[in-house]
Amino acid sequence: MGTRTAQRDGEWLDLVADLLTQPLTCLPDEKVCRLLVRTFDAPGSVFHFQHGGGPLGGRVWPPEHFAPHIEEQTHWAVHESDARHPLMRYHRLTGLGSCLQVDEVPSGIADRRTVRDWRALGRRWGGVQEQVSIPVRFLPRDRRWFLLGRSDPFTAQEMATLRRLQMLLTGLDHQVGAFARWSGPAGSAGAEAADALRLTPRELAVLGLLARTLTAAAIGRRLGVSERTVQKHLQRIYAKLGVSDRLGAVCRAQTVGLLPVPLVPAAGS
After folding, report:
1. Tally of structural domains, the chain
2. pTM metric for this prediction
């Protein structure tokens, strides 16, 4: 592994490790876009999202790079990109959330004319001739992904780095979602209890999934980590709550306000 690759990986590991300790309820897309641009010498990056099958949304960084054509680009992204963007055609037609660049899209999905027309737009919109897609969540009605563009193709080594980053960012996205699902019902009282017990956002995400009766293996799949890692988190959660098993952890968490207490129907209702 070259020195520059090691430096790139180190920067990203530091960023994700820092973000995993923060009580985030949404993906910090600007920080990610900022580092993508710096790491890969690109003029700009875009974060796209779609929730519940609703309209496509997006944020760009840096804003000044996109400002001259932002209205045209936004209209094209919302209304035309699914059919005319080589990468979006790939994701839509295959249903896969692969990290790949335009040059890697099979010709059966995006023929020469589709690619040529997209590159003509790229020349007009700042000289972008190559672009890579980095999906972090790609379900039919719930999608989040980053796009990174520049004038020259990404090398094989850069693509390998981007695919490692996709794994890191997907894991971060999973935790953000799990923590958001915990923090909503828990409210301010839950946050105060978590601070008092020194539970980390990762541990709270695990605790919230534990309360939904998921196994350690299932929690690992949700968070993008190994079952062994989940077991380590559970050991720390048990120690901080002063319990020795899953049931004790959930009951103790309900008692101190970390988890909502299930409503018990009144007699005769």
Report:
1. 2
2. 0.86
